[in-house]
Specification:
- The protein is an alpha/beta fold.
- It folds into three domains: about 1-60, lambda repressor-like DNA-binding domains (434 Repressor (Amino-terminal Domain)); about 65-170 and about 300-330, Rossmann fold (3-Layer(aba) Sandwich); about 170-300, Response regulator (Rossmann fold).
- It is built from eleven helices and twelve strands.
- The chain has helices at about 5-15, 20-25, 35-45, 80-95, 115-120, 135-145, 170-180, 200-215, 230-245, 255-265, 300-320; strands at about 65-70, 100-105, 125-130, 150-155, 165-170, 190-195, 220-225, 250, 275-280, 295-300, 325-330, 330-335.
- The strands form three sheets. Strands 2-1-3-4-5-11 form a six-stranded parallel β-sheet, sandwiched between helices. The chain has a four-stranded parallel β-sheet with strand order 7-6-8-9, with helices on both faces. A two-stranded antiparallel ribbon has the order 10-12.
- Helix 8 links the parallel strand 6 (about 190-195) and strand 7 (about 220-225).
């Protein structure tokens, strides 16, 4: 039996990019010359990729599926509680409305080689990017170029992309709430423990802390480590304490980091928050194991998934996104670890 033709095989046959084929299939004329369109349609007809429903133009078949690409170097990316909550929100909202979710864990720099891009059989795409800002922009442009509706999760809006919606939580605002809570006590130096790969949400959190700390003259240091490895977190904090001494505040990028920090500080004979204030971020259920109870921010990962799915479903029904960007507000969860 002959292998079913894909976007990739059509692109090879026509001698054009996959994005160009997708534009022709979706009836998008922007950036596609008449000659190229005819060339692609000839390849589609020869390979039998899509039926010509109208006799004049080619239209996409509904697959009742949405693709989610999570760009993350960790093979255990689903073990992250933020990611699992995000995926659960997306999946449940889509399933309730008759759609499935195809999940792709993608290594940084490999998005263009993923089957989501090369052989996409979905009606729309969600992208959760990581990396430096330019890398994330390149990923957004690549997926946007496929000509399918796109929701970008947890990054700021980009003006020049078409048929794209951005869904994120207000991580900068959440960090400002935490920093203001910390500043209820004297503070001259703080250290923030963050992942060794750039995530847009973490960039926003850093911006929020810096905004408040700079206003109060607080020096902010950074510890970068593998956030998925508890030993790496502990080693990074221990090395900082040995080199720089005890800060007034230790800020965890997430609650896992904050809990590991509390355990290490306690083992060294330091009391939280008397000697060091500690803050976390996310307030997922497992944070209840922290002693003292964490001062943190309640993230809305599940709601982000629901919002992204709802935006895409509405787009598929109406033909256009109703909003360019959705920003979910966050709330402070007071605890005993700070101030």
């Amino acid at each position: 039996m002959r292998e079913r033709p894909t976007l990739h095989s059509v692109a090879q046959k026509a001698g054009v990019s996959i994005a160009t084929v997708s534009k022709v299939v979706n009836g998008i004329t922007s950036g596609v010359s008449d000659a190229t369109r005819v060339q692609v349609e000839a390849a589609i007809e020869e390979l039998g990729y899509r039926p010509n429903r109208s006799g004049r133009s080619l239209r996409v078949q509904r697959h009742q599926a949405v693709g989610l690409a999570i760009v993350d170097p960790s093979p255990r990316f689903l073990a992250d509680p933020f990611t699992t909550n995000l995926v659960a929100g997306l999946c449940n909202q889509l399933n309730t409305n008759g759609f499935g979710l195809l999940l792709y864990g993608v290594m940084p720099g490999k998005l263009g080689e993923s089957s989501l891009i090369r052989q996409s059989e979905v009606d729309a795409i969600c992208l959760n990017p990581s990396g430096e800002r330019l890398e994330r922009l390149a990923a957004m442009e690549l997926v946007s170029g496929l000509g399918q509706p796109l929701v970008v999760i947890q990054d700021r809006s980009v003006d020049n992309l078409q048929d794209v919606c951005f869904v994120r939580q207000d991580d900068q605002g959440g960090a400002e709430l935490l920093a203001a809570e910390v500043m209820k006590r004297p503070c001259r130096r703080a250290v923030m423990v963050i992942a060794d790969i750039p995530w847009p949400a973490v960039e926003h959190r850093v911006a929020g802390f810096k905004k408040v700390f700079d206003r109060h003259g607080v020096k902010l240091d950074f510890i970068r480590c593998d956030e998925t490895n508890s030993q790496a977190i502990t080693d990074g904090i221990a090395d900082y304490l040995d080199r720089s001494g005890v800060p007034d505040v230790l800020v965890g990028q997430n609650d896992q980091i904050a809990i590991a920090a509390i355990h290490l500080l306690t083992a060294r004979g330091l009391e939280v928050p008397r000697d060091v204030a500690v803050t976390g971020y996310n307030a997922f259920p497992f944070t209840g194991v922290s002693s003292p109870a964490l001062t943190t921010i309640r993230s809305r990962a599940y709601e982000l998934g629901v919002t992204a799915a709802s935006a895409l479903l509405d787009r598929l029904e109406r033909g256009a996104f109703q909003q360019r960007e959705y920003v979910l507000p966050l709330e402070l969860v007071p605890g005993n670890s700070a101030p």
